Amino acid sequence: MKKHLFLLFLMASSAIFAQNDSNWTFGGGAGFIGGTGRNSSVGFSITPRAGYRISPQLETGVSLGFHWQNSSFSSSTIFGIGPYAQYYVGRSFFVNAQFQEFIINQKIKTTNTKAGYDESALFLGGGYLQQVAPRAYIQFGAMYNVLWKENSSIFSSGFAPQIGFVYGL
Fold first, then answer.
1. Is the Cβ–Cβ distance between 106 and 138 less than 8 Å?
2. What is the reported pTM?
3. Which of 35, 99, 154, 165 could form a disulfide with 82 if both were Cys (CB 3.0 to 4.6 A apart)?
């Protein structure tokens, strides 16, 4: 399964960079986490997105997310999907809004209990763009989930740092 996902990602990346003169944008991010100690953990995430530039400043599209984490006490998989809108201020800054519906499966190892549920998120934020090639940028930013509730969310915070790339601007 992992080999198939990697090959699919590689083929999609090739197709993305082959397109030059369109209003379509593609991007996303990936990450790994790891830690040691009492609650050692390991995990990864991949968050692809595809958008369409309605104007030179405004882009809208859909984003996906897959997150997996395994720690000493629990393991979880989270799949998210939803629309986004991003407004560019010149070619250096952006503001964005992104809705995500998360499907969560979690296992608590100490009690051997499993749970599956959904959680909605509405992220608002912004950041900085750094051009790295013609029509290709790295994004640095932060978002905040305005629907986050401290005592009922699977996420430990409503704050989400954002590092990724976008091609097609």
1. no
2. 0.78
3. 99
